[in-house]
Amino acid sequence: DKREFRAVDFWRRRIKLVIFPYLIWSTIYFVITVMWGSGRIAELPFSLQEYVWNLSWGLAGFQMYFLFVMLQVYLLFPLVLWLIRKTVGHHAAVLGVSFAVQIALTATLTHWTPPGYLGTIWWHHYATFLPYQFFIVLGAVAAVHRERIKQWLVGRGWVLTIALVLTAALAVATYLIRVFVDDQKPMDASNAFQPTLIPFLVVAIACLYAAALRWNDRWRSKTPRFASAVSWASNRSFGVFLAHVLVLFFILRPTAAPDKPWLLAHIPQPLGTVVVYLLTLAGSLIVVEILRRLPGSLYLTGRPRMPLPPIRTLLRRDSVPDTVPDSLHDDANADNSARGLASTSSRA
């Protein structure tokens, strides 16, 4: 919507929120999970080439490639914006071409490996923007036509549900065919870039958006606690994404037998997976809460630093006698609430 858009200003504002967390957390993961985790910490001073290689493909932590892709999307955003503005009135055609390219591209990436050196790095395609180009274009077009899309989605819950079931059935059926008819390994058959998965992904995105719209329009004001929980979780989601693999690494690090994590050796499945998931989530939230209150929080979590409670306020609370009348407690609480509100307003 902003006609005065400038690419350099956009890059300066957005890229720093991704590139610094990417560099910092890639270094943390490389040192701890790659070097120390494999018993090679003594080789760290001589591992610069390996570090650069991991950094080049988002390999330091298995989720870090996503930030690498985000950086590419930010760099390409001015070009995408130019395309959307130049093709006003023809966005359906743009989506059609992009979808056709997506089908051809994912089929090529999934079912063909080029010869020579290119073939040795072909599997890194997931760390490039190419397999996601359709969803980038789809998001840009949807942003321009968000009001029309919102109006179209209203009252079409059954249409979306049926579409979701049909596209999911297509994805599962083609997976089973690849495994039991084509004799593919389940790992290969479940490749995330299978062309037959694309319709399901598109419909799933539409369903999630429609559900969020319905909740926001009809239920958000009626469920303030849930709304607060969503806001709280959203504010910490990026930090959890960055830290959760490290937390998971330490949870699964203790072993009871060769290549068998202690937790999974002593807790039967599927309960073991549930326990590991909950521990990882809780541990990640604790790590994020700590990091959000440290200097450099913006570069560690992508979010501004949260203030610590003033020491004198904590001391004052501890020194309040138990015999103070309830009315004075009420006045003190009201005063603290007013200060917090004023502080929040000034930061906003």
Offer a concise description of the structure:
With 348 residues, the chain is an all-alpha fold. It contains 17 helices and two strands.
Word description of this protein:
The chain is mainly alpha-helical and about 350 residues long. Among the domains are: about 140 residues, no CATH class; about 35 residues. The protein contains 17 helices and two strands. The chain has a two-stranded antiparallel sheet with strand order 1-2. Helix 1 runs antiparallel to helix 4, helix 9 runs antiparallel to helix 11 and helix 12 packs across helix 14. It is globular, with a radius of gyration of 25 Å. Belongs to the acyltransferase 3 family. It is a multi-pass membrane protein.
Portion in helices: over 70%
Shape call: globular
**In which order are the strands of the major sheet placed?**
1-2
Regarding quaternary structure, how should these chains be classified?
Answer: single chain
Mean of all residue-level pLDDT scores: 88
Membrane topology: Multi-pass membrane protein
Keywords: Cell membrane, Membrane, Transmembrane, Transmembrane helix
Family: Belongs to the acyltransferase 3 family.
GO molecular function: O-acetyltransferase activity
